[in-house]
Model the fold of this input.
Amino acid sequence: MSKHLKSNILFTIFLVFLIISAFLVTFFLINNHNKRVEEVYKAPYYSFKKVSKKDPIDVFAKYPINPITINFDNKASITGLKNKEVETKINDKLAKLDVSKNEYGDNFCYVNFNYSNVLNISCKDKSVTINLVDGNDIILEEIFQNTSDLLEISKDALYRTYCPLMGCEELSYDENNVIDNYLIAGLNDIKNNNYEMILSKDNVGLRLNYYASSDYYPDYFEFVNFNFYNYPQDITIFNRFLTNDNIYEKEITAYCNPQNCNYIFEEYEDNSNYQNSSFLTSKTYLDKRIYNSTGNDITMEYKYEYEDLDLEALESKFFDIIIAKYDLTKENNYKYISIDLDIYNTNYDYKLITYMIDIKEFNKEEFIKYLLGYYEAKTVKEDYIFKNNMIITKEGNIEFLEDNPTDIFNDFNNTVYDYIIANEDNFLGFLGNCDSLDYDVCLEERHYEDLIKDASYAIDKENEMIHMFYQLPIDINMISYVNSYIPYSLFTLKEIE
Done:
């Protein structure tokens, strides 16, 4: 046998050996990984403590706001419990939080949840979740129902947290998927209570922050969101620790729905806006916002000084009028109504009020999910109203201006059309109901007849002006918009028959 042939045979044997070895190593790694996945996914490796049965979260119910005082000076602490031993026990736990301030005076401490005898406070990267009845720490199991499948809920929450980031389209639980490594790391830490629990006040839900290790990313910081709208029948945190007896020194006087409890903590020191929400009827929920747009930048550094308007006192006046005008209490389906209202100064002796009404109708299941923060809930119907026809007079009265000029003036539409043509530069914001995102194309295709028909009008007889207002969103970055004052003198009044 020649040396050349012998060398080729040895090389071939070596190559085959390498291929078989690589195959065996790969098979071993995949098999080992899959066994690990199977271990993590199945009981008894992954199990939870048993808890008692409690009523699930109820968006129609009101829950008590804990009447305690929370202090972050020098160390975190509370006062206001009748049982001082429990209060001391709680303060010992809170004292471990880091309340130190940075150079700007921020301590990054937040009261995330302070209702239903539950307190959740976070400072920097640490948090405390406490049952105020006995001072014990609250564990993950106590957030949920006794029959809840926390393993499936945890996997579902992890997938919902990472799928938008990683591009997975469905909850496949593919053992060879890289996302599975996040699942393993997260599930291990949840199982071992190695997390910081934050009950979100901005969106009704739970967030767990944890440090984890996976096959791909060792020692990384991650989180998982348990959005309550995905598990409304499983969430019991609002009911679990309620008591018949008052555990506080003060009487409980304030209550909130789960979806509006966060507003209790909002304070607007600059008087720039005000927000409140509640059920208008048994099936209609109303979210109200008032924006004080009278601010002037007094420093040229976007620091505004706002007129001293009592927005809270104006709330009922504004919204009672709007609710009556548009008959918003009329019930059919479950409705979520949001009214955003802006107050502006004008060149006249009144303030102009612009308001937008968004009315969404749902079936009951989708309505509950929407209230709990799922803004992609399926609607049955949706209406949108944008108007600019309210004023606050110099006497402080709130009035609607007349907004049916065709009933009052002769040849109103043609007169307005002639005015627009003569002052066309003032109407460059009108783009019509344009299908294109090209501004110049929209300008060419617009029809002023549509603007005149669809605009809203406010007739100000005292100042002899007709306010013409139009707004239509075309795209997130483009709006068809007109805000113009037309001289009253251009028109002649119809004769009264």
